[in-house]
Amino acid sequence: MKMSFVSGRISRVLLGTALVVSGAGCAARSGGHAAAAAGRSDADAGGGRGTVVSVTPVVRMSRAQVRDYLGDEGLTSPPRSGVSGFKVLYRTVSATGRPTLASGVVVLPSDTTGTLRAVSFTHGTHAGRSTAGSVAADGQSRIAAVYYAAAGYAGVAPDYLGLGEGPGAHPYLDAESEASASLDMLRAARDVATRQGRGLERRVLVTGFSQGGQAAMALGRQLQRGADPYLRLGALAPVSGTYDLRRAQLPASLSGDSLDPRVSAFNLAYATVAWNRLHHLYKDPSEVFQAPYDTTVEQLFDGSHDESDIFPQLPASPEELVTPRYLHWLKQPSGALLRAIRAADGTCDWAPDVPIRLYGASGDEQVTYGNTRNCVRALRARGTRPQVVDYGTGSGTDHFATLHRALPDTLHWFRALPA
After folding, report:
1. Strands, sheet with 99-109, edge to edge from the N-terminal-most edge strand
2. Are strands 83-93 and 52-61 parallel, antiparallel or unpaired?
């Protein structure tokens, strides 16, 4: 089963690549987003956001090794450069605005000189911290960062909060913390590049997949607003993003008509557990999860289990997972649940003043294409005219295929943009 909205890999384990891997461990909610905003202001003022705590080499490849590494994934564009990549632990803020640490990976081209333009890639859903790109050699964001770096860019890929080497639990589908962790990762990447004798251009190319499509939109908005005194948004190219849970993703997941119900059950379980940590949806899991899942679901999403562990322990559909009361609440959200959904939605409610292209597939079986349609509608309502690529239906249009196709397509589009 391919589980791209819920997988840390592009499709399968990469074998036969020459990697230099090392790692260092990191030790390890209350309040709403109003408190989080106040906390972030304090952290911005003196918290050292984006400060590098440690840098660990994790990959060094020649062009031939890059070609083999990416070729195993069907990414066959001849690399322009070998690469050097680093796991970075850096300072950021939690979903409630408190100082914390997060990790990510920075990959630089090794056969070029001069200043680099960064490509920020934000990954799709991971349940286990060990599948994050800073840790896993076959991690989705590691592969993407290597891909862009081999083309001459600086590949920058955050793990988000609570994944990779970051402490605590991952605040899944919390757009604000996705953006803050991603912005601080870019700040850390500037430092890493400087240590390697390189510089990063001001304008950042932003892309991301699935959950990372949502994160890319949230990061782009922060960059355009001038959240960093140096970094600016250069272009935006999200892929198959979950931009509209309330009006697109949740209705499609609960109807069972077009999306894979097993994947929908996974995503719903993950989101519910994460939302409860931030927004207090329930006191006891039995209020929202049916037996026997009410005794196991929270532990499954503690960061120590990946998708191969979790899927066999979940039912085949959302209706078998959650209680009738919670199912009704999901269909008509209010109160804490509505606040949680709003914290994920709204990432398209702004007007990018840079080139923007959205990628997706109307045949996507995990993230309904209605997300992309609604995002385009929201952007157009604010005077933006985004380009849209719909890979259609049929063969080669499932969720993971959109990433396979969009990686080279975004690269070609980035190259065609004015310098």
Report:
1. 52-61, 83-93, 99-109, 154-158, 118-122, 203-209, 232-239, 357-360, 387-390
2. antiparallel
b/e for 161-196, b at 16 or more Cβ within 10 A?
bbbbbbbbbbbbbbbbbbbbbbbbbbbbbbbbbeeb
Q: At what angle do helices 140-150 and 63-71 cross, to 10 degrees?
A: 140
Q: Judge contact between 286 and 310, C-beta under 8 A.
A: no
Amino acid identity at 49:
R
Separation between Cα atoms, residue 84 and residue 106, nearest integer Å: 8
Structure tokens at 294: 């009410």
The number of C-alpha atoms within 13 Å of 57 and in the hemisphere containing its C-beta is 9
Tokens of residue 407, six digits: 């990686």
3-state secondary structure string, 254-281? HHCCCCCHHHHHHHHHHHHHHHHHHHCC
The helix (run of H) or strand (run of E) holding residue 320 is helix 318-321
Q: Which spans in 332-398 are helix H? A: 335-344, 370-381
Reported as a single tens digit per residue, the pLDDT across 302-357 is 999 999 999 999 999 999 999 999 999 999 999 999 999 999 999 999 999 999 99
Residue of 158, 143, 139 lying closest to 9 (CA atoms):
139
pLDDT in tens, 268-307: 999 999 999 999 999 999 999 999 999 999 999 999 999 9
Residue owning tokens 């503690």: 302
Task: Output the six-digit token pair for 317.
Answer: 């559909």
